[in-house]
Amino acid sequence: MPLQVVTGNHAAGYALSVAGEANRTARGVACGIYPITPQTEIVEYVARFPFSKGRVVPVESEHSAMAVSMGASMSGARSFTASSSNGLAYMAENIMVAGYYRLPIVMVAVNRTLGPPWNIWADQGDTLMLRDFAWLQFYCETNQEVLDTTLLAFKLAEDPRILLPALTCMDAFIVSHTQTETELPEQADVDRYLPNLDLPHRLHYDEARTLGGLAWPHEGLSMRLELEEAMKRVPEVYQECRESFNDVFGRDPGDMIQTFATDDAELILITSGTIATTVREVVRQRRNAGEKVGLVKLKMFRPFPGAALRDACKSAARVAVLDRNYAAGAGGIFCQDTRSAFQGHRNDVLIQNYLTGLCGGDVTPEVIDDILSDLRSRSAAGDPMWMGIDSGEETLQ
Q1: What percentage of the chain exceeds 90 in pLDDT?
Q2: Is residue 166 a contact partner of residue 103, using CB atoms and an 8 Å limit?
Q3: SS3 of 130, please?
Q4: What's 384's DSSP letter?
Q5: Which residues, listed in sequence order, are joined to residue 3 by a DSSP beta bridge?
Q6: H-helix or E-strand containing 353?
Q7: How far apart are CA 127 and CA 308, in angstroms?
Q8: CA separation (Å) from 77 to 25, 122, 199, 210, 273?
């Protein structure tokens, strides 16, 4: 595989393009695209790609971009798009519909602060506002993880046991515009990894069919139950897709959650995305100093890997959840799900929420040191701790 120095946006655009091209001997590829900072480079890359079968449709809005992608997917084409921030908010109605239609669309989202006030820096609130929709969600730390996860997302979403759309997420600018060495797979290898899409409920030109018609309550309930059953199958199917990825590309795309120094950790920090890079280095230094500290990086957020998370934290008495997001009146979203996952299973662990890096704020090693100091001193969990709201310097408030 060629190793190139590329941005996260380039890696995402490449992954979407070669995945679409891999379906050229079936129904091809089609998608709707619309620009928004900081994801515009992704759709620019896709628009320039010489697809053998299919088309890329520039549209007038994000809402229409998902509408075109849904129409393409309904016809049996491999379909995808990309967006960010308020573009995702404008697209939200169709994002919801795509999940309930069971369309295996893959969307790359560059996590950017929702406005107003307008802010183009990293914040996960845009994709996490979609957390109750029938979409898989993955949060990536590096450019390589963006590329690998995007390819894996197609295989997972299109598996007949799943048939759900998927979001691949990355931090704005920290990943999207930063260049790092990234292995770009050859088209032949992508062809081997991604079989032709054969969507069982696709529309046929010679057969009348209605999608999204009126359903009686018991029919709607049955469909929701089918969604839940598909979500429960995701962890097992994910591991199959992961093993297949390793076989084809010779590289592990990473587990649903990824741990570092957790086997005997008394204090564990849980986070996602690029914050994990900083936390990992602080944990390494603390371990060298003899402290029993560990890291859990949550890659998969939907479905939430509660059992795997509890197992990773089995030795810990105190857990800190670092959230680059905020639900008004409820604190960090990852922490809410973490507490729910532990409730009724482990009541002996202290789980404290720390809100840091919101609206693009820097998360430095000093911030992590402050969090560890606060966590170690606690006898009980309290309200979410806000970081750096006064002077821009990360301090506990």
Answers
A1: 94
A2: no
A3: coil
A4: P
A5: 183
A6: strand 350-355
A7: 22
A8: 11, 32, 8, 18, 30
Which two structure tokens, joined as six digits, stand for 175? 């990943």
Among 54, 135, 52, 146, smallest CA distance to 97 is for 135
SS3 assignment for 135-199 = CEEEECCCHHHHHHHHHHHHHHHHCCCCCCCEEEEEECCCCCCCEEEEECCCHHHHHHHCCCCCC
How far is 80 from 73, CA to CA, in rounded Å? Answer: 9
Other CB atoms within a 10 A radius of the CB of residue 388 amount to 21
Distance CA 189, CA 238 (A): 19
Residue ranges of domains in the chain, CATH in brackets? 3-249 (3.40.50.970), 257-386 (3.40.50.920)
Structure tokens at 165: 């759309």
> Residues 394, 364: contact at Cβ < 8 Å?
yes
> pLDDT by residue (tens digit) across 256-266?
999 999 999 99
Interhelix angle 8-21/143-158, nearest 10 degrees: 30
CA distance 23 to 73: 12
Judge whether 376 and 293 are in contact, CB under 8 Å. no
CB count within 10 Å of CB 52 equals: 11
The angle formed by the CA atoms of residues 15, 159 and 102, to the nearest 5 degrees, is 95
What's the rounded Cα separation, in Å, for the pair 19 and 99?
Answer: 20
Cβ–Cβ under 8 Å, residues 249 and 193 = yes
Report the candidate in 178, 187, 175, 23 with the shortest Cα–Cα distance to residue 108.
Answer: 175
Helix, coil or strand: residue 310: helix
pLDDT at 1: 67
Instruction: Give the C-alpha separation, 385 to 351, whole Å.
Output: 12
Specify whether the CB–CB gap between 227 and 164 falls below 8 A: yes
Reading the block at residue 272, the tokens are 């996602």
Angle (CA) 160-134-107 rounded to 5° is: 80
| Residue 167 CA: distances (Å) to CA of 54, 65, 100, 193 | 22, 15, 15, 19
Show the low-confidence residues of the chain (pLDDT under 70): 1, 388-397
How far is it between the farthest Cα atoms of the chain? 70
Q: For residue range 62-85, what is the model confidence (pLDDT) as tens digits?
A: 999 999 999 999 999 999 999 999
Of 225, 111, 227, 102, the C-alpha closest to 165 is 102
Indicate yes or no: pTM above 0.85. Answer: yes
